[in-house]
Each structure stands twice: as C-alpha cells, then as structure tokens.
Amino acid sequence: KAGVTQTPRYLIKTRGQQVTLSCSPISGHRSVSWYQQTPGQGLQFLFEYFSETQRNKGNFPGRFSGRQFSNSRSEMNVSTLELGDSALYLCASSPPTGDEQFFGPGTRLTVL
Amino acid sequence: AQSVTQLGSHVSVSEGALVLLRCNYSSSVPPYLFWYVQYPNQGLQLLLKYTSAATLVKGINGFEAEFKKSETSFHLTKPSAHMSDAAEYFCAVNRGFKTIFGAGTRLFVKA
Predict the structure, then answer these.
(1) Which B residues in the span 26-85 are in contact with A, Cβ-Cβ below 8 Å?
(2) What is the pLDDT of residues B52-111, one digit of tens each?
(3) CA nearest neighbour of A21 among A79, A62, A60, A70
(4) What's the CA gap between B74 and A105, in Å, rounded?
(5) In angstroms, what separates the C-alpha of A105 from chain B's closest C-alpha?
(6) What are B16-31's pLDDT values in tens digits?
(7) Least CB–CB distance from B42: residue in A35, A45, A105
(8) What is the Cα–Cα distance from A3 to A91, expressed in whole angstroms?
(9) Nearest to A106 among B32, B36, B43 (CB)
C-alpha cells in the first residue's frame, strides 16, 4: 500500500505570495491532519479533516486554510506569506479504526 | 488539558548502551500515548502506542515503553543503542481530533 505523499517536496516563495500544498493520504484513510514543524516551535497542529469536514483547528492565523476533497486528498493554503512561515509542513493520515498517524515526508517551504 | 513533556532536548549514548528517553503526560484520564521517530529529512514514523491494553508496550526496532499511571510517565527504552537509532523522538498524546506532540528529544549515538 502506498504511503502518504506530499507535493511539492520543496518550495521557495517570497513574502506576500501565497502557496498551496497537497497531500494524498493512504488509501482508505479518511482523516488527514496538517502540522507545521520549525526548530523554534516544534510540531504544531494546524487542522484536521475527516470526510471533507474540518473537525479541529490549531492556533494559527486565518492566512492558513485547508480543505479536503471527496477522495480524501487534502490541500492547505497559506496566503500573504511571511518569513516566519518558513517551515516543514507535514501531512498525516489516520486509519478508520486507529488513532495512530502515518506521516508523509513533508514539504519544505522557504519564504524569502 | 492533555499535554506531554519530554525531559531533555538532547540525549547522547554510546553504541550498545541503554537508551532512555523520558516523557510525562498530564491528563485526568489515561490517554492514548504514542512515540514517533523522525530521521533527517523525513516525516515521522510510529514506534509504538499505548491504548490501555497493556502497560508495557513493545514497538519496532527493539524499542519499548512502559505506562506508569502513578508517575504519569511513558518513558521509551531500548536495551542496546545502535548507530541507526540516531534521530529525533517525539512523545505524543491524542486530544480530541488532534495529536499533541512533545518538544522532541534528539538522540545521538557515539561509536
């Protein structure tokens, strides 16, 4: 079974631009979560989607948004990028009968 | 509120020595607890999870963790460290529909 895939793997943007990151969960997984990982703040929860509905959201500004499609694939969008948005963005999916998460390799976003 | 605290941001051991990574949780009820590992330039990988079925949980790569309610701890151990164990380790707890991670402990293994 294929793992969680994230595209692109690396991205360089400039301040003020917007970016969209994509995540394809493991087949059969309907829950997708997003995390931001930085050296200073560690792993921070962004949001979680299940069957196209956002069930939980972390403490991030409204510039961070996400959505999930009917095939469980998910996207997150960051608008008006700031230097502090430079981070590794991780996506994880969970099976229907478990609480563990399966992570993708992440998207490394650099904002210049 | 549920959270986890990892004691020690860096731990260094010699190859073949015992690995002990500490995690304490705060919760009013026994939570679901996890240990994940992250190798450089990769996502996180589940090592093991505690779901109240047994207090001693065995995971992959020879790691295990013991849930101690009296100490609110879930420390990760491995009897003999290998060079390939060098990575960052995260303790985590489920809270509703999100997972809360500890700050992480980077494990260094010396030859």
Answers:
(1) 32, 34, 36, 41-46, 49, 51
(2) 778 899 999 999 999 998 899 999 999 999 999 999 999 998 877 778 899 999 999 999
(3) A79
(4) 26
(5) 4
(6) 999 999 999 987 666 7
(7) A105
(8) 11
(9) B43
